[in-house]
């Protein structure tokens, strides 16, 4: 291996640059990029851009070639260049899979692989990167922050009392919250498995060595039988922020470490379709003329489809202990890599897979002249709209209450191009994790009479972690759906904020030991530099709570208030997630005023800042909007399971059978509103097809146009757009030719953590053990489920 230490008084060494980029495997980037430096005898030096070893030393600023090389190595290059936004009429009909170009002035707003939005400057111990709690003895308001596991044990797990039930809301409310959370945000962890200082494995060290930020355990901790800490990996830095700023000449307090959102921020059903073109392609059934998504080819659920399995086998999901080693049930494959976390979550994913394919077949039957691409895009558009309707109409008002909904969200006034829709760091890392306190300890499975299933009884929550085999081999999703509809959510209570299934028995695929979700939430907030509880109350226009008496006005459980002061010493030190979690509920809500503010502001931004929001003028016709609002989650269940009776509102907890209605009485939309008369589409007739590509008609501009695109892995040769004039198309159709994505150095197909292998019409990103591909299909990560719940 080459010696990568580049010499020079003011130089940064190659290994030091890798540390800043949070890459630990130098062999992955050795050849082409190192040769750029060695062949031209460049040194990565500059005056003050990295650091100086002697006073008065001078140097040259990095060249554009050096900056480009660094951007390639870090995987940042595709995200540092402005996206290419189409200007044709299709750009107003269908959103891009990445979320880019939604806002024409700011095309990266809400796009995947961009930084989570900051509504408040972060608080890092060195001012720009180090997490809160990183340095021993670092004081906040005169006190050291308490270890997160100690907070969990003393505050979260307070009393061994019976788990309180929410008599108003069904278990499905919990699962929808988790499902849409996975539609809006995924914060990937650093691709490195070891520290950058001495290559210490993060699974074994209890020292804070970036990217390792372990959770300390006390000597008598039930989770500490084998170690004095639990491993914790820092979230990846957004390109060029924090320590990486030094490589791009911007190491300042005004450029602190930001965290990446790997998904599009929008409510766009990316749980189904993914947030990258590569993943979208893998999820689709490209051999079908009906615009379908891929389904499982090995198993069915009484004739109904299951999610496909992941391509990489053997996967890390749990197996039936009674099955032979050859009889494996792999992790499910969906638009989000966390679909197998819980059987109930996998059931919701499965439901929407079936709904897409049901709608696609119906639309193709209604419009036989539509190509597979048009059917797919129109179905994706409808499914995305249903996700938005169910969330804003049926879910969010139950969470933040009617008063907060009117205050922070209100009625729809139209698209606002000045409003950034990107998911905020505080929403994703703190406020929307309120739902962890509503997760029941038991996953109920019920028979056709909505009684305990005699063959497949209910399960403790930890028995369902990463266990798709329990769906495939134990009755499919119908028993689970009945259990979610006819069982209550857990009531968030200060006497038991989270049950021990999550605080003592949480399973993640990267480790065999049990974890504590509360500790993970608190540590993640500190990793992201989130300011404390009182700062966020002030941000929301709420009064700061400075003593026991003040705190008791927001948290009526005085015993809990005293415990908070005892452990944090100062109210300003209380972690935002915990402070918001324990506030008294607003009327008709399941959160207090702080989280209602943050969730409300976020939902308004996601709605008003989305050019493709279903209510925005011109996105759907008036007739189509009238049909969309008829559809409900209960209708989706009726159309895609064997259930014959459902509640009118699937999120309301009701007794069976008196509060259930027959599926025949459940409203549904009429797809006739999407019927298109082919004789009125174009005087030129349908445009010619193209092999290995797609053609779509667009008539919004007056003259019918045919837009051609190639499948991923193929390049278009010829005109992209044909126009219908004088009864004929103005040109011959283009052709699609195979390309070698692995040769593209400007926008690499794979992250530098993976090896690229070209295939006909495609490519493969390959990881070496112990890494596996992330959901983007191009980055190697430690675990398929490195971010849990």
Summarize the structure.
This protein is of the alpha+beta class. Helices cover 28% and strands 9% of the residues. The two termini are 40 Å apart.
Largest sheet: 4 strands, antiparallel
Q: Give me the CATH architecture of the largest domain, please.
A: Orthogonal Bundle
Q: Percent of residues in beta strands?
A: 5-15%
User: What is the strand tally?
Assistant: 22
Could you walk me through the main structural features you see in this protein, from its secondary elements to its overall organization?
It is a single chain. With 789 residues, the protein is α+β, with helices and mostly antiparallel strands. It contains 22 helices and 22 strands. It folds into four domains: 14-106, no CATH class; 107-190 and 249-657, Haem peroxidase domain superfamily, animal type (Myeloperoxidase, subunit C); 193-233, no CATH class; 678-738, Complement Module, domain 1 (Ribbon). 28% of the residues lie in helices and 9% in strands. The strands form ten sheets. The protein has a four-stranded antiparallel beta sheet. Strands 1-5 form a two-stranded antiparallel ribbon. A two-stranded antiparallel ribbon has the order 2-8. Helix 6 crosses helix 13 (478-485), helix 9 (343-366) crosses helix 10 (372-408) and helix 10 (372-408) runs antiparallel to helix 20. The chain is globular, with a radius of gyration of 27 Å. It starts with 13 loop residues before the first helix and ends in an 8-residue tail after the last strand. Mean pLDDT is 87; it is low at 1-10, 26-43, 45-61 and 784-788.
